Amino acid sequence: MTILRIDSSVNLNTSVTRDLTDHIITTLGDARVIVRDLARDPLPQIDQDWAVARAVPEADRSAEQRATLEQSDALVEEIMQADTVVIGLPIYNFSLPASLKAWIDLVARVGVTFRYTENGPVGLIRGKRVILVVASGGTPVGSDIDFASTYMTHVLGFMGMKDIEIIAADALAKDPDGTVSRAHAQVEGLRAAA
């Protein structure tokens, strides 16, 4: 089994999402783990050169355009190699970290990870299990003010990843110990489902 682990918390030492993600990786057992740490190794924002390059058919791209898309292609390949994608998702100001949005922008590519048909969009990344590890001070996961997990669930599903489980630690400001304990119990439940 191959796991793609994506960390996005800027808190490198006491992050709840990093702790829970560590626990998930251990719980899932023996696996090859691809690590993408967006806080330690930030991704660039997409720009005009990237937008132009991705719109050119692959066979017609110049060497410069291929180089422009090289990192985006590598990120997509990481997803394709994975059986399970584990994403650490702290909620910052009701939404996802900018570093995780940069990752989404680089992997959500028409003709590569989704396509449009006469019947609407079709995701091209199938057969992946996704575990979203969500932490917040007080934003309830799935609530009207949670624009992070709802966005991630939508955009991952748009690309074809519909088998999504959420591990929620969403009351850290109110009950940090209880919240983390409940989230760890959810992770233990993954063992039975795996």
Structure description:
It contains 7 helices and 7 strands; from the N terminus they run βαβαααβαβββαβα. The strands form 2 sheets. The chain has a 5-stranded parallel beta sheet with strand order 2-1-3-6-7, sandwiched between helices. Strands 4-5 form a two-stranded antiparallel sheet. It has one domain (2-193): Rossmann fold, CATH 3.40.50. α1 runs parallel beside α7. It starts with a strand and ends with a helix. It is globular and about 55 Å long. It is α/β, with parallel strands linked by helices and 194 residues long.
What is the compact description of this entry?
The protein has a five-stranded parallel beta sheet, sandwiched between helices. Strands 4-5 form a two-stranded antiparallel ribbon.
